[in-house]
Target: TetR/AcrR family transcriptional regulator
Amino acid sequence: MTERRDRRIQRSRHALKLAFQQLLQDTSVEGVTVSNVAAKADVCRGTFYKHFDTKEALYQEVIEDVLEDLVISYRFPYQDRTEFVPADLAPGSIQLFEHVYRHQDFYRAIVLTDSVPGFQDKMCRVLRETAAKDLVADLPSFQPELAAAYFSQALFGLTAEWVRGNFMYTPAYMAEQLLLLLQAPAAVKVRVSPMTNEGV
Model:
């Protein structure tokens, strides 16, 4: 009986969180109401208040859930290693895009709207701090903080472009593309198109 009740509680909480994320695609955090969330989740207001004291408490838990899953997914390729070469990873070991796809309603809201102000900076900071703390390159001139800052912004840019394209590629394909970017030799030649003054 307790196990069934626990599953019911989990389903209700999940439904409320999902409803909140879906509503953010059309309105700001301030514009979302408890009634909106309850109706979207197909539960009554009383059920909402059984799980969350306020709308802000729900919002905070959604943010914490997404960021926690982000860090777990980011660390997945190297969680059981003492060292590794990023360019040698297998595409299947990269779980970051699986994470984004799991939370696609939320990422649509942060990329396509202004519903969740400040989350891009928060996400990049979490990635930057995780990378700087976890990863050390064996290069005398290597500055981990700068590399972590560069990589976190690059990952967000890649993610944002994927979201803007309405997830037209699979998470596995995005992982492959990330590896190609990591594996591209620094000495690769890039052709420069003839420059004109058009549009200047």
User: Anything to note?
Assistant: The chain is about 60% helix and 0% strand. Residues 2-182 form a domain with the Tetracycline Repressor; domain 2 fold (CATH 1.10.357.10).
